[in-house]
Amino acid sequence: MLHHDTILEIASHFDLGGTPVAVKELTAGNINITYRLDMGAEADAPRYVLQRINTGAFRDPDSLMENVRRVTAHIRAGLETEGVDTERRVLHFVTAENGTLLYTAPAGTAGEGAWRAYRYVDDVTAYDRIEHPSTLYEAGRGFGEFQTRLADFPAEVLSETIPHFHDTPYRYDTFCRSVEADRAGRAAEVTEEIAFINSRRELMRSIVDRLATGELPLRVTHNDTKVNNVLIDNQTGRALCVIDLDTVMPGSSLYDYGDAVRFGACTAAEDEEDLSKIDFDMTLFEAFTRGFVEMTATNLTRDELLLLPLGALVLTCELAMRFLTDYLDGDVYFKTRCPAHNLVRTRAQMQLLCKMEEKYDAMCAFVASLVDGGDAS
Question: Quick check: 68 and 248 in contact, CB under 8 A?
């Protein structure tokens, strides 16, 4: 954690209406550094999130924040048109002293880098693990609503905050180069994992190829739909708001659905070492899918809806490959807690993918029953 005075100095460059009285580091997430700022000791005192953008991962923070500004403004306008209070339904970013949504601390200072601030949403939970299907159903509704509210937004005007983020053929080529370079000297110990990825090369290009031919339309996508990126209201249990918008950019609806199911329907954590604990829970899958399809059925094409389970396979395999690539490169992208952390993550995703492959026909049948029959009781 940065020194308290450094955080306060950075916070002073945003229009927060005062000086924070307390700072708490928020440790969820693998990429950015995040703090909660309490503006008073009272229960109703404003709170904000202050976050340093990882410019190693996001090399153009100005374009990133322009994407975020456009998307949140569009969602906010839609909610306001419907007469919905937007306070807890969309992120509200705070203007910096330069009139933009970014403050860049000078190089060489303790807090150097690109910073942003937004209002903290109180009385909500971002679930890292979901065991009750009703909560995952709400997460499905949350991500489905995000898709629906942006269905009329021109995806092509958004920048690629991480070029080739879900371009799996490109990522596969990167993976092959990492295997050959073997920068960390680890390739010899992971020959089985390398072979696993190589055997699924064609699977991983199946969405990109469909986007290229127009079989799948280009849409605004979140691209990091872990269930903990949906805020669930503690009082009502309903999905309120989608957060962590750094990777919002053009893509396929299958990306958002697939990554959410990968995360939400797995029976263990992303870094579970005991592979026997890892399975794909069909009850949780069905709950999320029901919520997602309920919110998107009138906006996604029939082909998109029927292909949703393919997104789960592709995104799980892609993430396994990304973890393994980072392991081969010496752990330069994802935060790690030990030297083998990325390898543990790789094996966990591989195991999950195998479980998905076993249940793929059942996954497709369930989605088809929702799309064509309206229900799947």
Answer: yes
Query: Alpha-carbon distance 26 to 12, whole Å?
Result: 19
pLDDT of residue 131: 73
How far is 125 from 147, CA to CA, in rounded Å? 21
Residue type, 83: G
Give 377's pLDDT tier (boundaries 50, 70, 90): very low
Instruction: Return the pLDDT at 376.
Output: 44
State yes or no: pLDDT of 341 exceeds 90. Answer: yes
Examine the pLDDT at 33 and tell me if it is beyond 90. no
Residue closest to 193 by CA, chosen among 322, 324, 336:
324
Pick from 269, 259, 315: nearest CA to 292: 259
d(CA 368, CA 372): 6
Amino acid at 144: G
**pLDDT greater at residue 230 or residue 33:** 230
Q: What is the distance between the alpha carbons of residues 327 and 334, in angstroms, rounded to a whole number?
A: 9
Cα gap 37→49, rounded to integer Å: 6
Nearest-angstrom CA–CA distance, 14 and 8: 10
How far apart CA 67 and CA 248 sit, in angstroms, is: 7
283 contacts 133 by C-beta, under 8 angstroms:
yes
Question: What are the CA-CA distances from residue 68 to residues 49, 102, 244 (Å)?
Answer: 15, 12, 10
**CA 202/CA 289 separation, integer angstroms:** 25
pLDDT at 313 over 70: yes
pLDDT category of residue 335 using cuts at 50, 70 and 90: confident
Q: pTM of the prediction?
A: 0.91
Is the distance from CB of 370 to CB of 376 less than 8 angstroms? yes
